[in-house]
TrEMBL record:
Pfam families: HTH_Crp_2 (PF13545). Signal peptide: none annotated. Keywords: DNA-binding, Transcription, Transcription regulation. This is Crp/Fnr family transcriptional regulator. Residues 162-234 form the HTH crp-type domain.
Length: 244
């Protein structure tokens, strides 16, 4: 049974004494005891973000960041000003660190809060000490990295081999699977913004809007207030197979 926050030394910073319990939901830290999580929380630098707020530091300060609660988006902007959303991070994801010593050698990545979010960060020295002393944490992190690599590989293949229409179908299916499919339906709540979908697909909002309207006419999508229902997931899969 988890220990109450007040059972830990009062010398812990207030944010850490409360937020350590959030670390219990981070999958790759599951092997740590409550006492070790409390000590880790005391080491962390905590960041509370409001929707739309940028998190400064990741990929430039060589700290490791962990999303404890909320939802973050990763985006990049080219020298020409073109913006693209690289993906979204959910609780448990770690990011940042491992940045090249020369900033000019890597793509500028910006992290924004989609929802109110809580993020913890550790210095590279603290992170190294953690994974060197906790073999189960190291193993879980390696597994997590492998899963992330698989997701990125699938997205890269889609980007290079599918039309915009096919990429949109694949993205909607990915969102449906994440939201949960029941009776061949999935509810995306709230509905993803067409502008965000366009940024993730590297296309225009107008092109996304046209295809979304076509899918609605086919009976595959339906707006329900602020939400979007995928009415026939298998039908969407069939369309994706046709464009592959």
């Amino acid at each position: 049974m988890p220990l109450d926050a007040q059972e830990f030394p009062s010398a812990l910073p207030i944010a850490a004494s409360v937020a350590w319990q959030g670390l219990r939901g981070v999958g790759w830290l599951r092997s740590l005891s409550d006492e070790k999580l409390a000590l880790l929380a005391a080491q962390c630098r905590w960041h509370r973000l409001q929707p739309g707020q940028m998190l400064h530091g990741p990929y430039t300060d060589r700290r490791t960041y962990v999303l404890v609660g909320g939802l973050l988006s990763l985006g990049s902007c080219s020298a020409s000003g073109r913006t693209m959303i690289l993906g979204h991070l959910e609780p448990g994801f770690f990011f940042g660190a491992f940045a090249p010593p020369q900033p000019s050698q890597h793509v500028l990545v910006q992290v924004h809060a989609v929802q109110e979010s809580l993020v913890a960060s550790l210095s590279s020295e603290e992170m190294e000490a953690l994974i060197m002393s906790e073999i189960l944490v190291m193993r879980a992190m390696v597994q997590h990295l492998g899963e992330m690599t698989g997701v990125l590989a699938r997205r890269l293949v889609r980007q290079g081999t599918l039309s915009v229409r096919g990429r949109l179908h694949a993205l909607l299916l990915e969102l449906a699977e994440h939201a949960g499919i029941a009776d061949d339906q999935a509810l995306l709540a709230p509905a993803p913004r067409q502008s965000d979908l366009a940024l993730m697909l590297g296309t225009s909002r107008e092109e996304v809007a046209r295809e979304m309207a076509r899918l609605a006419r086919l009976g595959l999508l339906r707006r329900e207030g602020r939400n979007l229902r995928i009415c026939r997931v298998d039908g969407l899969r069939l369309l994706l197979d046709e464009v592959r």
